[in-house]
Amino acid sequence: MSLARGKTVPSDDAAHVLVVDDDSRIRQLLAKFLGTNGFRVTGAADATEARQKLSSFDFDLLVLDVMMPGEDGLSLAGSLRRGSDVPILMLTARAEADDRVRGLEVGADDYLTKPFEPRELLLRINNLLRRRSSAEPKAAPVETIAFGRFVFNVKREELREGDEVVRLTDRERQLLTLFATSPEGTVSREALAGPEAGVGERSVDVQINRLRRKIEDDPANPLHLQTVRGVGYRLRFE
After folding, report:
1. Both 29 and 91 in a single domain?
2. Is the pTM of this model over 0.70?
3. Are 20 and 131 members of one domain?
4. For a Cys-Cys bond, which of 30, 39, 135, 234 suits 186, CB 3.0-4.6 Å?
């Protein structure tokens, strides 16, 4: 099992994978490989440690080894499946068809036999996550948000203060739309900068300050558009 060169560094909102395997070398290899491909990775050496991690963190996907000391992966998968729909990918050194069937019967979503090519594991993980995302019900799109005496219509990209339309630049409309459509109105500095060349964090700060002058009574002490230290900015709306 060789490692491919990674492409990205995992962010705080990256998918979180729990790798459960009694082989420390495999845990370390997968942590490095998946980490450099944009995932957050936590390892566990057995089912007991896995349950401890599961009680402390929310994971987006589990990679479980079948053969482990104590409770095996099949038992753990079956137990977890009774109370969770988190995607489970089983790893095993066994190639027999009946073991693959047992894994699927207890609720595993996919199966990979050791030794395996890490790139295939990555593809299977991405497929499982896409499948889960497409199956999740989509939230109703946000139409308007209100903060203080202002109302922003997301569809029309129009900001009103009472009956008056507030003039916005194209960039300010983009910023308000990002805040309105983000969980809890919080957006990272990187997301606010976007992919456009020349839009760095300093430029984002300047744009935020300009927007604050239009929606805050005291831009130096903002009530609506607040700084989230170490993350970015948050628009507090109703």
Report:
1. yes
2. no
3. yes
4. 234
